Protein: SGNH hydrolase-type esterase domain-containing protein
Amino acid sequence: MLENPTIVFLGDSLTAGADWQKYFGDYTVHNLGVPGDTTDGVKDRLDEVVALDPGTVVLLIGANDLAKRRSVEHVVQNIETILVTLRNELPDAEILLQSVMPRGHEYAAEICDINRHIWQFASSVRTHYLDLWPALALDDGELNPAYTTDRLHLNAEGYEAWLSELEPALERVHGLPPKSRPIRLPELRGGF
Structure:
């Protein structure tokens, strides 16, 4: 068991929509996902995260910023500020930054640009990075329709696909050996 088994999941409705305690029952879990939240909102809520003194922070934010016409630069700068603040205020915490998830293909170029920047920045503040695109996006950057009903929010299959990436990522972040657990594979559709 970790020295500090408290995990904070921080983000928007994608984070809010999961029962993280069910998935990570060995930890004390706080779901600080807020539907509709943006990088500005997360910046404003960092005191709440720090007050919980978590051993691990899992961050996913940025998808709503683009719908509100925020620039790539704005989103990147805010995510970098969030990471620097978390590192300064929680120097011993493990931080896992997840890529901005795919949504409609019309956002793909901007999201890829954001993800490239935050991936490059993450290591400078001792932050782990998890790229969710290989598991969730189609070739054109669209969120896989099997995982959503509205091109943004995840259905049960979408959360399973996300967890198939997140569980082993958290094991790596915590320096734990892989668990003996069933491997989560997305359901094959269309007879393949």
